[in-house]
Amino acid sequence: MTLGALEETLRERPDDLASWLVYGDRLRERGDPRAELIRLAERRSRVGPGSGRDAVDREIDALVAEHRGSWDAELPEGVSAAERRHGFATAIAVEWEDDDAPRVVDEVLRAEPFATALRIVPPESDPAEFDYWDDDTDEDGEPLPSAEVEAGVLATLDLAPFTSVDLSYLRIGALGAKALAVSSYFRSEAAGGESLAAAAGPGRLRTLDLRYCHIGDSGLAALAANPFFTGVRRLHLQRNALGAKGVRALHAFGELTDLDLRYNAIGDEGAEALLAAPFAGSLTRLLLYSADVGDSGARRLAAAPQLPPVLRSYWRSV
């Protein structure tokens, strides 16, 4: 198996210790200390809780402490590793600076083959300004992106390798969401040879955090129109200037189990649209305030047989 094929296998099956051991042999040939981390992980899997495992943990911690600085130094400027596995970055944070984030993400992916979680860190913002974002719209009522964010460049962001993407507090506006929605098509065209149908296939994305991104109903509808995004199971949409129309767009996300709709004035009509969604009975968590749906909407949710009993019970207590 080629090194690239082995890395792809481990991206898909990160708990496949046998494949990690094969990969470790390749690393050992290159004198990479992460080969020893993989060997120690295999040894740890064979010892039960107690002094034996504690001793292995100390060896792992010492090896990580010795090399973490050099591993971090290999990352591009403005990038940090939020999580690592066997020394390899699995979750990365990229600062949004001069709209260069898409290029930096590409650079990181070439260096970190097992990165599956992406966080884009927004420019510094004053939290006191967030309350005024809902009024920041164009003449058509579309939420506007921040002046610090060139929303169109999001069309070049490569999300295909990621299972988790966090853009929270990056005010991309409706335009940014629409650019993000075409990113899979754009990347496919740039790569050449891949059909539009293939580019529109389901992605591996399972968690999408868009809190305070200010995408509006039209931005959410654009994401919902691309199957690349609709396999998401955890979707965080706190404060995004959404209404009932946006909730109806959520019907395309048929696999949702965790949904955050706080601080969106969806009203009674939005509550009704939520109950008509194909995922209503599968929700394990729904973050929503009574003020978001109004008294009538709250009563609908409290009495809705579509919702799991624990969620109905919550709304009966509101």
| Oligomeric category | single chain
Strand content: 5-15%
How many helices? The count is: 13
Rounded to the nearest angstrom, the distance between the terminal CA atoms is 57 Å
Structural class: alpha/beta
The secondary-structure element order is: HHHHEEHEEHHHEHEHEHEHH
What level of helicity do the residues show?
40-55%
Number of strands: 8
Neighbour order of strands in the largest sheet: 1-2-3-4-5-6-7-8
Radius of gyration: 22 Å
Determine the mean pLDDT: 91
Largest sheet: 8 strands, mixed
Shape: globular
Extract low-pLDDT stretches.
Answer: none
Give a quick set of tags describing it.
318 residues; alpha/beta; eight-stranded mixed sheet; globular
Can you summarize this structure?
The protein is an alpha/beta fold and 318 residues long.
Walk me through this protein's architecture.
- It is a single chain.
- The chain is α/β, with parallel strands linked by helices.
- 43% of the residues lie in helices and 11% in strands.
- The protein contains 13 helices and eight strands.
- An eight-stranded mixed beta sheet has the order 1-2-3-4-5-6-7-8, covered by helices on one side.
- β7 (258-260), α11 (267-275) and β8 (285-287) form a beta-alpha-beta unit.
- α3 (34-45) packs antiparallel against α4 (51-73) and α12 packs across α13.
- The longest helix has 23 residues, at 51-73.
- The mean pLDDT is 91.
